[in-house]
Specification:
single chain; Uridine Diphospho-n-acetylenolpyruvylglucosamine Reductase, domain 2; 5-stranded antiparallel β-sheet; 4-stranded mixed β-sheet; 8 helices; globular
Amino acid sequence: MIFVINHHVYEKLISITSENNVMVNEPLKNHTYTRLGGAADLFVTPETYQEVQQIIKLANQEDMPFTLLGNGSNLIVKDGGIRGIVMNLNKLTEIRREGNKLIAQSGARIIDVSREALSQKLSGLEFACGIPGSVGGALYMNAGAYGGEIKDVLESTIVIDPNGDLLTLDASELDLEYRRSNIPDKGYIVLEGTFTLKVGDHEAIKAVMDDLTYKRESKQPLEYPSCGSVFKRPPGYFAGKLIQDSGLQGTQIGGAQVSLKHAGFIVNKDNATAEEYIRLIRHVQATVKEKFDVSLEREVRIIGEDLN
């Protein structure tokens, strides 16, 4: 689907960053782990914090829709794509050490931050060695795995607010809870996070990461595109167990399938559309509710527009 592009805004975006960093009608399936999604009208990848600020201010001045896209690991973009400006921070990937802290820009993968911690003999981020999201996404949803979560190690963050102003916030100001923060409510864009870690033994840290990597690779369907774990853990239950006990493993709508390897995952097995993927999510929710009277809440975000 092709949309009329605002050439005035396009030219201004190029003046803020560069022509190489602004794409027109960019297919978002190229930027999501599910390999789903229609096109972004304008897709921009700034290289500095100042460029991010200027792009937000431009969107405000032009009253143009603005969407921040992380690395697309916990996201479904609908088949009609996204209007206006879509910004991706995948060129902000610096990770640096200061004492027992690691400071990572929001476009860096949290996996890579955990690997840097290992190389620096710093302990605390072992749990993140298999989380596919970016630093920004990890803060956004207080990502966690295997008993650890971001709030355990996050000290502070630098964000940009909806007005384009730069703020430094303590972790306590983000209201970090199970798989949530106030970042979406406040409209913040994460630029970097500072993680406080402990000096440890390289081999001991590596042993934990190797064990968690084995558990992930042996249990998760990494051979197909997916958005990771689709649902939050309902109190007192495991989402995957409820789905499995509902007889839903292998259930398929179009090219989307409830994974045979891990019932908590829905995989893009055969060129699925976002519409098929979302229909399957709703079918799983309805079936589990009917069989066990448990409401499964989505962990994955769904954004964008349906095809007309």
